[in-house]
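Hey there, shall we discuss this one?
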Amino acid sequence: MAVDMPTDNADRSTGHTHPLAGKFIVFDGVDGCGKSTQLTEFENDLNAYGVKFKRFREPGGTLIGEDIRNILLTKRGEGMHIRAEMLLYMASRAQLVYQEIRPALASGITVLADRYTSSTLAYQGAGGGIAEDEIMAVAAAATGNLWPDLTIILDLPIADARRRTTKKGDIHQAGLFEDRIEQRAAQFHQRVREGFIQQCSQFPDRYRLVSAVGSQQTVHKRILTAIEKFFAVPEAR
């Protein structure tokens, strides 16, 4: 079922000259796609532009959100029903939106987020089987219809993503383990990937699909090009 994506931007301040000032930008995609690394790269770009920003991760970003994150991503969440999982993600998101994101946007600060409702649509929706219209109804209540100006989906084949998560930080040598969501079967993660791609087709005015295949620098250039084109950022002289 196609769902509209209304956005409440009424409380955002104006008067900032740079096209990226006061925008809400999300990086999302399957586990292992390189979101966190590429967000750090983009932070450097915003610093070069002179744009003030704040960065948050989901779930988390607040004391309450971090407690919820601990439940969601560790053994404490074993046996959790997919609907309870969805609602906990939304509870963390609600706290983050009203405690941090809305005040930042209202002050003209650019907000960067590592995941948002796009992840819920992909993981608990496409992956877990909850209907899209149900997720969007809960998202509307949780965030007051606050949707990002732009969501960048980093697309990577699941086999490549799994190799990256295995290598990252030598998790097996360090005695660490994948989180509760990452441990799910490859078929689940393939449905998630397809869900992200579907969102890009469904919401072309707010999403951009960027290939995460290639070097860190190559992917960064793709992302920066997509963002600068989307927001009509003038070329440097």
